[in-house]
Amino acid sequence: MPVTDDEVEVLIVGGGPVGLTARGLLERWGVRTLLVERRRELSPFPRSRLVNTRSMEIFRRLGLAAGITANAFPPQFGRVRFRDTLHDRDFASAAMVGVHAPIPESPVTGVVTSQDRLEPLLLAAAQAADAPTRFGAEVTGLAEGADSVVARLLDREGGAESRVRARYVLAADGANSTVRQLLGTGTTGPGALAAFTTVVFDADLSRWCADQPAGVYVTAHGSFLPLYPEGGWAWLAPTPEDPEHADWSGLVSRALGPGADVRAEVLRVQHWVMNAFVAERFRHGRILLAGDAAHAIPIIGGLGMNTGVADAHNLCWRLAGVLRGWAGPGLLDTYEVERRPVAHQTLRQAVANTDLMFQAQSLRREQLRTSGGAAPSTIRLPWSERYFAQLGLVLGVTYRSAAVLADGDGEGGRLPSEASEASEVSEVSAHYTPTAEPGRRMPHLWLSRDRSTLDAFGEWFTLLTPDPARWESQSAPAWPLRVEALTGEHAGLCGLSAQGALLVRPDGHIGARWQGGPPDDSVLRRALAGITGTTSA
Length: 537
Prior knowledge:
eight-stranded mixed β-sheet
């Protein structure tokens, strides 16, 4: 292998929300990381707009949820409004369930916030932990050996080259991922759907929006998005012909509608392509893809960034286990087995969201065409009020892999490298029923006034049981493990007897369940060995 200038355990490529979240998670495990980002600074564009319930649960674990909420819009902005023009009345609206009000299924509420407000909080948290970051550093080559990967980096400002050796590479470098291209990994799906432009501008639009707040106003002339609680707007529309010579201020003003009499002060303009695909592989040896590098999701419904954050949460405990020796390298194979099916279903859902959005606008156009200019003030949306919640997809994923054992199975007879199962997600993604079945996210239950079951999970496995003393004979010193008491009421809700137990993985998904008591003194050790792909010790 070539001489290197630096050595780390995990090289993270990409400084967006997914890469920054991964760094925060790995730092909590004590994993040495280096994050490299080809841009010279964080993006100044709003980009992703929604932090959903599951992402907020992950950020709560990182100690960031309160700060994110403080910088976000209040809950009443968790709504999409449909109008003919921005200054017209709503002809339809839909709430973002889990954002516009608390839900009993989670201890947190999602928020509407701009990505350029989220990323600095994630970056600051990592800097506080002394995790190094290199902006303006582009990966130009990767050489994989038996026990490490050497990445060649180019300083985009000075032109200097350097090399970094890492045990693993986590690529979160976006839909146009350099790492994915270097690997030659293909994609499946529609691909590029359309070219769009985001125009960031200042204007006083409060007379039409202050009394009817929303995270998005969808009009016949593009979508308008409030950017920050203190002000600022973005206009999102298909890219016009000859964008280099476009009068953006005039285009935005005309899009506001006749009679608006508002002149937009344009601050920034970004052209981008809406992509829709899933990578054919999420793992290539010691290199793993996450976020948009692994799957590009259309923006309708706000699923893309949140799916990437969930990728990082699923992957980082596996990397930590392999690096620290309490998991076998085959455990990393179950990352793709669990997350790639979720990516495919999320892509299908986002495409369906887009179709339904167009249906709403088509229904309105038909009303206007047939009514002679006196259209009804509202239309019936082609989805239920809970449609935009998508809680079945956000909270209801069921992982099926060798890192999940069937009810009562403590033998762990299958190695992760032999996994052929696939994760399951409900086709009716608005519906979510909490359950403590293996593979599912552990349901939120209040252990005390301010402490949820989700707060019991971290850089360890958690055994939840109403009878901790009954499980004391179980010895599993090779794995990080904590035991947490459940009340009898909570145990019943989880399908447990008075001596039963749940083994919860560090990502909060249930790895094993014993509805009765332990059948012998080694069942927990066998289960941990089976989940992590190691020899029972």
